[in-house]
Amino acid sequence: MPNLLLISHGSYAKATLSSCEMILGQLKNIKAIEFKQTMNQDDLLKAIEIAAQTFTKLDAIIVDFTGGTPANTAIRFQAQHPEVKIYTGTRGAS
Prior knowledge:
Elements: E1 4-9, H1 12-24, E2 30-35, H2 41-52, E3 60-63, H3 69-80, E4 85-88
Parallel strand pairs: 1-2, 1-3, 3-4
């Protein structure tokens, strides 16, 4: 199973992981990061780097939507780690 990092504005990523674990049980291959109002892009990049180090290999980052700080920061991370895929669109339909 691939190693995944979920990133969102606020607690959405952590809530998504919690919901998945309610159904599937503990998912050691998935981590979640909250982008908080008190953070800037450099803070988020550092959080991504720390989380990525917990895996032997990070396969993909999933962000809430295109163009936001989580997505833009994931792209910055990907510039140094081109093997990491980025997927967007974890927010619900409106």
